[in-house]
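Hi R.,

Here's the chain you asked about this morning:
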Amino acid sequence: MRHPPISRRAAARGFTLIEILVVVVILGILAAIVVPRVMDRPGEARIVKAHQDISSIVSALNLYKLDNFVYPSTEQGLDALIAKPGGQPDAPNWKGPYLQSRSVPKDPWGRPYQYVQPGQHGEFDVYSLGADGKPGGEGEAADVGNWE
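And the predicted structure, written out as tokens:
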């Protein structure tokens, strides 16, 4: 079955200016709806990352205690997970480094994680001060810790 011949004018026909403007307006409307929803996600992603980092640090601290019978002191800090600490309490069976990264990670906002032993919420507290770097806060500025 043969198709009727197409005129050159119909074959060369492209998009009109109005068709292009309609498409641009539709894309603009979609962007106005989608972009604000996507822009809220980085804050949530940082909080989730902080929870994951804290979970890894807590696991490393538990391995440290398994080997050395005590958690590192606040003064020894999280660096005791990377290199054998000096001072008290002694770490006679240190078998680290206890973190896979071989360095203590920074929180998603670029600051060091806080470590206190004994903690207010348990044997120790590992936490980030959130986006504002200050205790307390709400939303992305809230503290994220191992007590949650």
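The chain has a mean pLDDT of 86.

Let me know if you need anything else.
M.
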